[in-house]
């Protein structure tokens, strides 16, 4: 039985796909057989972030409609042995995903994999609802910014009322907060909500804090999940996040302004 | 922080403004989420009735339903009258 984890946020552009790619890859790095499923029907992008966009032949909707089987649609990652991607379809049909079809595909994946990462689309339409419906755990990706925090709270409401676990009276979805694009300099100046501020408002367990980093754009430019850039701050923060997701107790890093040495003060950097 | 920043920072800290605004709106929306669907319509109807007698604005009526136990829910109606409309 696989653990199903949805990566969601409500608001767009906060880093859901970057996070799905990083965490899925991180779990595979740790030896867990993992599949990342793109639920953003019509706006497929996980393939680009993972660097496998030219290898997409069949997609999620093809499998649901019986036009292809899972083996044909799953793309095996070229870097890691136990990492797979199920790409979204580019159809404009918004109702292409339905509960019965999604459930059948997830059940089939569940036999094969340890983890299923569901990369949710933005918004609260059917695609986002499908991505979270079957989840066991949720990673709520939030930027330290008012609209993102508000939308995250809205999604938390959905997780506790619109999921299968809620409908069947099972124990609720385990919720994790992942704060992304965090800028300690601006927090120190009082220009950005701090980790504690966001925690006070959303009141769910903090899984990780990813600093605002140039490594993220560099990673997406080249189709390499940022977690593979182990020298970068964002890559290391994602590695810590994956360890915490697996139950390890890892201290938080990159929360405070890095003290600049004399060299950096003079020459910059 | 440089010396120049120190003098500039006398202006309001925007992060704390953001936090206050979020705390209010999130609390409001959570209350709405957990209340029955008919509550907004009930609020509008009550507003209409009061308006027959007193001219009040939309935000001067608030209706909340709080569940105090399994058997008991309390409907709380809060109407703020303008200064010159009393009595």
TrEMBL record, chain B:
Gene3D superfamilies assigned to the protein according to its UniProt record, in alphabetical order: Cell division topological specificity factor MinE (3.30.1070.10)
Alphabetized UniProt keyword annotations: Cell cycle, Cell division
InterPro entries: MinE, MinE_sf
GO BP: cell division
Keyword Lipid biosynthesis tagged: no
SUPFAM superfamilies with a match to the protein in the record: Cell division protein MinE topological specificity domain (SSF55229)
Keyword Cell division: yes
Function noted in UniProt: Prevents the cell division inhibition by proteins MinC and MinD at internal division sites while permitting inhibition at polar sites. This ensures cell division at the proper site by restricting the formation of a division septum at the midpoint of the long axis of the cell.
Family assignment from sequence similarity: Belongs to the MinE family.
UniProt xrefs under NCBIfam families: minE (TIGR01215), PRK00296.1 (NF001422)
HAMAP family per the UniProt record, alphabetical: MinE
This protein's name: Cell division topological specificity factor
Species this protein is from: Rheinheimera tilapiae
Gene: minE
